[in-house]
TrEMBL record:
Cofactor or coenzyme needed: Mg(2+)
A Gene Ontology term for the protein's cellular component: nucleus
Region forming the signal peptide: none
Name of the protein described by the UniProt record: DNA topoisomerase (ATP-hydrolyzing)
Ranges for region Disordered: 47-75
GO biological process: DNA topological change; resolution of meiotic recombination intermediates; sister chromatid segregation
């Protein structure tokens, strides 16, 4: 999820820098619709969801929630689900920030790749080695 969030931040900042997304002098609802149509992933604040919802996707099993019409769309995605993009300081909408986020994304990608290469047995061995070291202390 963190990797997807970083990738969305990079896309968002690049779109703002290139002028593809205009943030200033716009209604929040218009910006919300544009983020949805451009495929940015919403991240609801609820801890229930294991995976983030994909923009435009619907889920037949979702619970009905009480929402104000100005704060939501027809598919259950709320404006606050894009807060991770819209709450970024204007000073962070720069190419330098994109480079920092790309470096962070690459580091996270490497960690994910390393974890995928591991076997359950190797995880157990590492945990046991750590436990053994703690027991000696």
């Amino acid at each position: 999820m963190e990797l997807l969030k970083l990738e969305n931040k990079v896309r968002f900042i690049l779109a703002v820098v290139k002028g593809e997304i205009i943030v200033s002098n716009r209604k929040k609802a218009d910006l919300f619709v544009e983020l949805q149509t451009k495929g940015f992933t919403p991240f609801p604040k609820k801890a229930k969801a294991v995976e983030p919802e994909v923009a435009g996707a619907t889920d037949d099993t979702e619970e009905t929630e009480v929402k104000s019409p100005a704060d939501s769309s027809s598919n259950g995605v709320q404006i606050s689900d894009y807060k991770y993009l819209l709450a970024m300081a204007i000073g962070s909408l720069t190419i330098k920030k994109v480079q920092e986020l790309c470096a962070e994304r690459d580091k996270l990608n490497k960690e994910v790749d390393d974890l995928r290469k591991e076997t359950p047995k190797s995880f157990w061995r590492k945990d046991l080695a750590t436990l053994d070291g703690q027991l000696d202390v």
